[in-house]
Amino acid sequence: MSNQNQLEKAVRSAKASLAVEGLYVTAEEEALILEHLEGKITEEEFHKRALELINK
């Protein structure tokens, strides 16, 4: 299994766990998470953009 497939599987699993609790991840949130997991953005940038999403 490729690294990309492993990341996507991990995100799907996390989304399923959240859904059981009645919480859902938007497409924008998922894209941000994948960018961070793929190393495309720093931890600092991830936190900054996550806070921007929260405050929308």
Automatic annotation (TrEMBL):
Residues 9-51 form the Antitoxin VbhA domain. InterPro entries: VbhA, VbhA-like, VbhA_sf. Gene3D superfamilies: Antitoxin VbhA-like (1.10.8.1050). Signal peptide: none annotated. This is Antitoxin VbhA domain-containing protein.
